Amino acid sequence: MSTSPRPKRYTCVKVCLTCGDRKTKKRKTNVKKGSAQPAWNEALSFDVSEEQLSRAQLCVQVCRHGSSGVSCSASLGGFQLGPGGSNVTEEGQRHWKEMLANPRKAVSRWHALQPNP
C-alpha cells in the first residue's frame, strides 16, 4: 500500500458553440479542485439567432488541468448537442430539442462522455 498522497484533480467543463464548420463562442465552468466525481451545477448560456439554429451544435468537453489548475492538459471526454451530425447521439438530439422548446430556461441532463467528441 502506498503512503504517498494522491495527486489533486483539477477539472472543468468547456463548451464551444459551432455554426457549420466555424467555432463562434466558447464558455468554461469554474475549475473544480480535488474531486474524483465533480459536479459543476453551473449554467452556461449562448445567444443564437434563429437562422443559426439549424446549423448550430454545442461541443462539451470535460478537461483535466495541470497541478496548478491553470491550463487544460487533457480532455477526459465529451459529447455534442445539436440537430444532427456524425458525433451527435440520439440523447444529444433530444436534449437539443428540449432546449429549443424551452428558450431562456435551464435544461439539464446527464450525458455519457465519449472519447473524442
Automatic annotation (TrEMBL):
Q: Which GO terms describe its molecular function?
A: calcium ion binding; calcium-dependent phospholipid binding; clathrin binding; phosphatidylserine binding; SNARE binding
- Residue ranges of the C2 domain? 1-97
Query: Which Gene3D superfamilies does this chain map to?
Result: C2 domain
Q: Got a GO cellular component term for this one?
A: plasma membrane
- From the Swiss-Prot or TrEMBL record, give the protein name: C2 domain-containing protein
Give the GO terms filed under biological process for this record: calcium-ion regulated exocytosis
InterPro entries named among the record's database cross-references = C2_dom, C2_domain_sf
